[in-house]
Write a structure and sequence with these properties.
The structure is a single chain. The chain is mainly beta and about 475 residues long. The chain contains 3 helices and 27 strands. The protein has helices at about 5-20, 50-70, 105-110, and strands at about 30-35, 40-45, 45, 75, 90, 100, 120, 125-130, 135, 170, 175-180, 185-190, 270-280, 280-290, 295, 305-310, 320-330, 335-340, 345-350, 360-365, 370-380, 385-395, 405-410, 415-425, 430-435, 450-455, 465-475. Strands 18-21-26-23-24 form a 5-stranded antiparallel beta sheet, with no helix packed on it. Strands 6-7-8-9 form a 4-stranded mixed beta sheet. Strands 13-14-15-16 form a 4-stranded mixed beta sheet, with no helix packed on it. A hairpin with a 2-residue loop joins β2 and β3.
Length: about 475
């Protein structure tokens, strides 16, 4: 253990090294042994041992060791050696270490601060160190290891990349705002959302808690601000993504709107409704019935696959997916006599009396050797294809036969061409005549007119016509 004189010499040597201009010993510094046989530092003869003196001794020992013995320092009241990993170690269970306290302006005024320099900023109330280019607040959160060990308090501040008032804001209720100061919902966004991932992005609202209703997803465009005139409300866009690549590759995405179903129970699935708003009223314009798939326009309860209440206007052709078969029927009363013999007239009669008989048309008057014709105009849809002509006739004459023909006549020349011809056979009475080998079967109303001809003889009451039916197909609605 060093003697009193040895300590005095080391202290005086240290003080002179701090101030080489002083050649004489410092008379106001001395060391005395106290009652517990410990050396104490005295100034001007007064016992003033305190923590500042302990610091001075620590600094003195550090200077002495560094200049002479190249050893490390332990500062305590019990002696011993410092930890092998520490250059200086201070032990105390009742005291702390007080480092220089500077205001922000004083800290910033430090000339050429060394990297790692540590101060306490009394203006901000925290420890700061110099990282080689700027002062950093050590009291702030440090997630350098990317792991938080407790909840992080934002203290009403933003999570921001550049430290400005922007980015993510979380209030005391847990509402999260993106680009907004006071979020009003769990997620409150001021701006746009963009999904940009190789696998695409989804928005899913899923609440499957037991005995709880499902969550709703509301997509509402913004309304115009108060008291504005002529300002439109925002639009709501549903747009699928485009494909990318050569033709045939990179198919574009679809827009899927699916009503909710029901996994258990007898309840119907939900409908899909399209509504508009007039003033404060909401009007249902179109409904897709979730139970049967019927679509209603102007009605909320469609009874057919397409149920429209109101008028329909179509610009262009309405084309069927496959050809539709349709019929056009002609009563005997539709036929009018056409003959050069003015004494010939058509007549109508019932097979039986009353209203239960069959009305037929024939000829009377004239000469039985002359041909007679009864004609009915035909108005089929343009583009229709005739597939069959059938007629119900009465033939009780063994000499002559009845003929039913479908003909067309050109507008330009008046030339007539036969399309079908069905004749009766024998004199058996009622006969159904059928011809399904139709020539020029496609109807062309732009250049032709069409007629049915019932051919018989004048003054021949035993051959009569009851009705004719034309069967045709169409691919476009007329």
């Amino acid at each position: 253990m060093k003697t009193k004189n040895q300590f005095m010499q080391q202290i005086q040597s240290c003080l002179r090294s701090l101030n080489p201009s002083v050649s004489k010993p410092y008379s106001f510094v001395s060391i005395e042994k106290n009652k517990s046989s410990k050396y104490s530092l005295f100034k001007n003869g007064a016992s003033q041992f305190n923590f500042l003196a302990l610091q001075f001794i620590a600094l003195f020992i550090l200077f002495a060791v560094q200049s002479s013995q190249a050893q490390w320092v332990l500062v305590n009241q019990n002696g011993g050696s410092p930890d092998s990993s520490a250059a200086i170690e201070i032990e105390s269970t009742t005291k702390g270490m007080l480092i220089p306290r500077l205001t922000t302006s004083q800290m910033n005024a430090v000339s050429s601060p060394a990297t790692g320099l540590l101060v306490f900023n009394s203006t901000e109330g925290g420890f700061y160190f110099y990282n080689g280019s700027s002062w950093l607040d050590l009291s702030e959160d440090n997630l350098g290891d990317h792991t938080a060990t407790q909840n992080i308090k934002l203290n009403d501040n933003y999570l921001s990349n550049d430290g400005d008032n922007e980015g993510i804001r979380i209030d005391n209720t847990g509402n999260v705002g993106f680009g907004i100061t006071s979020p009003e919902e769990k997620i409150h966004l001021a701006g746009n959302i963009k999904f940009l991932e190789s696998s695409g992005g989804n928005i899913t609202v899923d609440n499957r808690s037991t005995n709880a209703p499902g969550s709703s997803l509301g997509l509402a465009a913004g309304s115009a601000g108060c008291c504005g005139f002529g300002y439109p409300g925002g639009s709501l866009y549903l747009s699928a993504g485009d494909g990318y690549g050569a033709p045939g590759f990179g198919q574009g995405g679809g827009v899927l709107i699916t009503g909710g179903g029901n996994t258990f129970g007898p309840y119907d699935p939900g409908d899909i409704e399209f509504r508009t708003r007039t003033g404060t009223s909401t009007i249902t314009r179109m409904v897709v019935d979730g139970a049967n798939g019927n679509v209603g326009i102007g009605t909320s309860s469609p009874s057919e696959e397409l149920d429209v209440e109101g008028d329909i206007q179509i610009d262009g052709d309405y084309t069927y997916e496959s050809a539709k078969t349709s019929y056009m029927s002609f009563h005997s009363s539709a036929f009018e006599i056409s003959t050069t013999n003015q004494s010939v007239s058509a007549y109508r009669q019932y097979l039986t009396s009353g209203t239960t008989g069959v009305m037929r048309v024939g000829t009377q008057g004239g000469l039985i050797s002359n041909d007679a014709y009864l004609i009915a105009p035909v108005h089929l849809p343009h583009g229709a294809t005739v597939t069959e002509v059938s007629a119900l006739v009465y033939d009780a004459n063994s000499t002559y036969n009845a003929q039913v023909r479908l003909v067309n006549q050109l507008h330009a020349s008046g030339f007539m061409a036969e399309m079908s011809n069905a004749s009766s056979v024998g004199n058996s009475g009622n006969q159904t005549l059928v011809d399904n080998t139709i020539a020029n079967a496609t109807i062309d109303n732009s250049s032709k007119v069409y007629s049915l001809i019932f051919e018989t003889k004048e003054a021949l009451t035993t051959i009569q016509l009851a009705s004719v039916r034309i069967t045709y197909t169409i691919t476009k609605a007329q």
